Amino acid sequence: MSDHPTTYVPQSALAKWFESRLPVMGLLHSSFVAFPVPRNLNYFWTFGAVLFFMLISQIVTGIVLAMHYTPHADYAFQSVEHIMRDVNYGWLLRYLHANGASMFFVAVYIHIFRGLYYGSYKAPREVLWILGVIILLLMMATAFMGYVLPWGQMSFWGATVITNLFSAIPVVGEGIVHFLWGGFSVGNPTLNRFFSLHYLLPFMILGVAMLHVWALHVPGNNNPTGVPIKSGKDAVPFHPYMTVKDAFSLVLFLILFSWFVFYMPNYLGHADNYIPANPSVTPAHIVPEWYFLPFYAILRAIPDKLGGVIAMFASIAILAFLPWLDTSKVRSAAYRPLYRIFSWVFVLCAIGLGYLGAMPAEGGYVIASRLLTAYYFAHFLIIIPLLGLFETPKPLPNSIVESVLGKAGSGSGLPTGAAAEPQTKG
């Protein structure tokens, strides 16, 4: 997993025997103990550990919940109520799993923003970034299918609306919809398909996450300056420096997670999902979970159905092309004044789209959605490429140590271009 040689030395005869045949401990030691990391990493870099913890938590709670869940349209809703009322600590398992999905997306959106802000998608980390986009897509598919399983009103109609979107695809669209439904309407075959995929996809996410970690360990971590490690003084071992920082961040994150689980477990859900699914009664306002709302707003902003579907998927797929859209040789927004401003404007745009996605698709809400959708794509296709050509970045520090000591941007003795050039190599 790591290109760095291991310094692991087995202490017992059994450990030496095992290591000579399957060097797992040496691999783990070189990847998560002795692995060198930049000494200036801040707490934005701890969300990878938070995400890994949340993934394992979701898999474990999901497996136990699946033992009590009945994937049948006639019994699914009652089986969820059975879990809540009759299974020992079933209410805790369900609230951990349901709110865990939301916490998972909170962490992943912060993780993505850190990558955008500090340029972690730039060479040689393109494959690392693309694997992250694939994980995001798998997460969204898993979360959507999981939202359908309680078989409440919002689950049923959410499945109906979202699966119907595929009918906009020319030629094959209707066939895809009927395959997802397992018939000519959302029903029991649909629920069985979604349950099977919801159980399978987390293990696919775990596999891609392992590749993601592997791809990270080849070039090593980016850092807030974007300057590569140039000497031993620029780096520290992963343990104990990052493990302590990761642990502290995880504890704070778990406090927030616990607050939702124990004090407001239904705050992020929808009341209509506590009503059994009824194909004859359409809810007054169909909305997805909060973490889908920005993309839902983009979908509804386009008046054409096929155009809306293309725009929604393109809003995610465009992230994979970011390493080639960004023309700047400087990674970090800390040294790019204009890019830093536009990064925070983009955050406000995403929050605004999230708000509009929860509003009715009418009047001023639609106009605002179209304006913010246009800005969303302009940020990636126009603003970022042009900033790389015309922005004048600040001088970079000669090394990570220099930035840690507070000398960033002064006394480098190099012009901006020369200081930025090493970033294309690490």
From TrEMBL:
Topology relative to the membrane: Multi-pass membrane protein
A Gene Ontology biological process term: respiratory electron transport chain
A single cellular component GO annotation: respiratory chain complex III
Matches recorded under SUPFAM superfamilies: a domain/subunit of cytochrome bc1 complex (Ubiquinol-cytochrome c reductase), Transmembrane di-heme cytochromes
GO molecular function: metal ion binding; oxidoreductase activity; quinol-cytochrome-c reductase activity
Pfam families membership: Cytochrom_B_C (PF00032), Cytochrome_B (PF00033)
Domain Cytochrome b/b6 N-terminal region profile, first and last residues per copy: 14-225
Residue positions binding heme b b562: H97, H198
Positions that bind a ubiquinone: H217
UniProtKB keywords: Electron transport, Heme, Iron, Membrane, Metal-binding, Respiratory chain, Transmembrane, Transmembrane helix, Transport
CDD domains: cytochrome_b_C (cd00290), Cytochrome_b_N (cd00284)
PROSITE patterns: CYTB_CTER (PS51003), CYTB_NTER (PS51002)
Top-level taxonomic group: Bacteria
InterPro entries: Cyt_b/b6_C (IPR005798), Cyt_b/b6_C_sf (IPR036150), Cyt_b/b6_N (IPR005797), Cytb/b6-like_sf (IPR027387), Cytochrome_b (IPR030689), Cytochrome_b_C_euk/bac (IPR048260), Cytochrome_b_N_euk/bac (IPR048259), Di-haem_cyt_TM (IPR016174)
Subcellular location, record wording: Membrane
Keyword Membrane on entry: yes
Transmembrane stretches, start-end: 43-70, 91-112, 127-149, 161-184, 196-216, 247-264, 306-325, 337-358, 364-390
Residue ranges annotated for the Cytochrome b/b6 C-terminal region profile domain, each copy included: 228-398
Residues annotated to bind heme b b566: H111, H212
Main location: membrane
Family the entry assigns: Belongs to the cytochrome b family.
Function text: Component of the ubiquinol-cytochrome c reductase complex (complex III or cytochrome b-c1 complex), which is a respiratory chain that generates an electrochemical potential coupled to ATP synthesis.
PANTHER family for this protein: CYTOCHROME B
Subunit-structure text: The main subunits of complex b-c1 are: cytochrome b, cytochrome c1 and the Rieske protein.
Name of the featured protein: Cytochrome b
Organism annotation: Salinarimonas soli
